[in-house]
């Protein structure tokens, strides 16, 4: 739901629909529900409805983490996602209503804050899932996570404004963020598993190998976040910024692929498949 909300938000902004609804919130052009046809009002309204439902589900996840007696880190991640949710709602509401009247209310910094807070919520939900799930961390899960990361970065490159293959249309921008955030989630999972392996919690993975994978995944994540930020109009997108974006994208791919290669090389060195969990 949050991944889809991210894509909807990007599409809404890219089509200019965020300034629809006659700058009203929560109403839209003096209506609770606008005309159900594909128009700017409907796009902005649908984004708001999806955000509202997703927000309630995020609160529900936090409640589940406490009522289900999950461990401390799971409860903290889920609770932090709820704690910063009002900030995201407030920034969004100000932007589409009185943004032009509030100092800094409709500026690059506001859009950057909206994007960064959304990314934080998405990451916290990813951590909640990884820490609160019933599946134990394993070498198999680490390989899958890195595979998703590499595949997601490659897919995002197809739609990225750094690689002039396709027009950076609203639909293309939404696809870029779906692919990029999927890769980001894969890297979050890789960091979680590699960290536990380094601490001796995953069978079949040497601590040194886990540490290398962890560093490479962290570097890939940092480069990928840079491309996600440059995917929005946060800077005057000159040729220099395009080249920097391309370098960041290539670095993210190289580091994620390197982490996968280190893990594969470790399996080859042992001469057998890495055991899963405690098997």
TrEMBL record:
<feature type="transmembrane region" description="Helical">
    <location>
        <begin position="46"/>
        <end position="67"/>
    </location>
</feature>
<feature type="transmembrane region" description="Helical">
    <location>
        <begin position="175"/>
        <end position="195"/>
    </location>
</feature>
<feature type="transmembrane region" description="Helical">
    <location>
        <begin position="144"/>
        <end position="163"/>
    </location>
</feature>
<feature type="transmembrane region" description="Helical">
    <location>
        <begin position="112"/>
        <end position="132"/>
    </location>
</feature>
<keyword id="KW-0560">Oxidoreductase</keyword>
<keyword id="KW-0408">Iron</keyword>
<feature type="transmembrane region" description="Helical">
    <location>
        <begin position="246"/>
        <end position="263"/>
    </location>
</feature>
<feature type="transmembrane region" description="Helical">
    <location>
        <begin position="216"/>
        <end position="240"/>
    </location>
</feature>
<dbReference type="InterPro" id="IPR050450">
    <property type="entry name" value="COX15/CtaA_HemeA_synthase"/>
</dbReference>
<dbReference type="GO" id="GO:0016491">
    <property type="term" value="F:oxidoreductase activity"/>
</dbReference>
<protein>
    <submittedName>
        <fullName>Cytochrome oxidase assembly</fullName>
    </submittedName>
</protein>
<feature type="transmembrane region" description="Helical">
    <location>
        <begin position="79"/>
        <end position="106"/>
    </location>
</feature>
<keyword id="KW-0812">Transmembrane</keyword>
<keyword id="KW-0479">Metal-binding</keyword>
<keyword id="KW-1003">Cell membrane</keyword>
<keyword id="KW-1015">Disulfide bond</keyword>
<keyword id="KW-0472">Membrane</keyword>
<dbReference type="GO" id="GO:0046872">
    <property type="term" value="F:metal ion binding"/>
</dbReference>
<dbReference type="Pfam" id="PF02628">
    <property type="entry name" value="COX15-CtaA"/>
</dbReference>
<keyword id="KW-0350">Heme biosynthesis</keyword>
<keyword id="KW-1133">Transmembrane helix</keyword>
<comment type="pathway">
    <text>Porphyrin-containing compound metabolism.</text>
</comment>
<dbReference type="InterPro" id="IPR003780">
    <property type="entry name" value="COX15/CtaA_fam"/>
</dbReference>
């Amino acid at each position: 739901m949050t991944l889809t909300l991210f894509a909807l938000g990007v599409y809404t902004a890219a089509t200019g629909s965020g300034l629809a609804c006659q700058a009203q919130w929560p109403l839209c052009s003096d209506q609770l529900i606008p005309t159900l046809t594909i128009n700017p009002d409907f796009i902005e309204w649908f984004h708001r409805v999806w955000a509202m439902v997703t927000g309630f589900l995020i609160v529900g996840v936090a409640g589940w983490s406490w009522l289900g007696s999950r461990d401390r880190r799971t409860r903290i991640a889920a609770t932090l996602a709820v704690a910063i949710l009002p900030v995201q709602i407030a920034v969004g509401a100000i932007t589409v209503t009185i943004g032009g009247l509030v100092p800094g209310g409709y500026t690059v910094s506001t859009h950057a804050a909206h994007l960064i807070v959304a990314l934080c919520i998405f990451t916290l939900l990813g951590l909640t899932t990884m820490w609160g799930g019933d599946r134990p961390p394993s070498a198999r899960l680490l390989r899958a996570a890195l595979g998703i990361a590499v595949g997601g970065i490659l897919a995002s490159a197809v739609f990225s404004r750094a690689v002039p293959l396709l027009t950076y249309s609203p639909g293309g921008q939404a696809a870029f963020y779906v692919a990029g955030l999927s890769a980001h989630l894969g890297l979050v999972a890789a960091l979680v598993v590699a960290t536990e392996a380094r601490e001796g919690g995953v069978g079949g993975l040497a601590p040194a190998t886990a540490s290398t994978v962890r560093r490479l995944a962290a570097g890939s994540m940092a480069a990928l976040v840079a491309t996600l930020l440059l995917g929005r109009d946060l800077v005057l997108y000159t040729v220099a910024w395009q080249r920097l974006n391309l370098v960041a994208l290539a670095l993210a791919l190289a580091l994620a692929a390197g982490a996968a290669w280190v893990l594969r090389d470790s399996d080859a060195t042992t001469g057998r498949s890495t055991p899963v969990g405690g098997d």
